[in-house]
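User: Second chain of the day. Same drill as before.
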Amino acid sequence: MPSEEQILFKDKITKKQYTVLAEELLNAIEMGEDALKKVLIGCENPELYFSHGTYQEGGHNRCGGLKGNRFTEKRFCKCLYYRNGKYHNPEECRECDFADRFDITGNYRITDYEVPAYFYGKGIGKIDLIISNGKTRYATELKSYKGNEETLLRMIAEIVTYTIGYPAGKYVKAIAFFEGTKQNDEFEKAAPEIKELLEKANITVFRFEKTGEKAYKICRL
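Assistant: Same format as last time:
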């Protein structure tokens, strides 16, 4: 496990060091999983998450609503999952205070949210969403349509950090953003090192495209 002083790779990313850090991550990917763990987390043998958490696959089966209209990315992901999944409860939705509720259309669906990373450590977050087309499960780092300034490199570093260690075939890594956002603009003009990272890390890119006042379609780019 990284020490208290250890800074995770994702937290080092700044505009000033953007290209240098992108190249460092590329090199680690090419060197293999042990090198990648050391770069991302700070050690080659981080602790396993399952000895620290209570999450069980399929355990997110009741929302219960949200109190207060405060917007956070975690609340947004929770709402996207429950509003558009098999556990949707119209009564709980009507009583919920959260205003940022959207319907998801198209072939890709949201099948889970807030899934723990494989490894445990201070500052390591969770997988925002699992997106699926019925065959493949995409472990997805999502940036919402408002209130964030994160770069594509940070998104890439986050989803690689959260999924490293999972058995091959468990998930496909992905990032997702909304049309009209900073992330979408960066993707449209992506630097060569970002394109190379997406390819070498096997990361799928999704964009949430508006199809109605309160509806979005998840589109693979």
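The chain has a mean pLDDT of 90.

User: Great, on to the next one.
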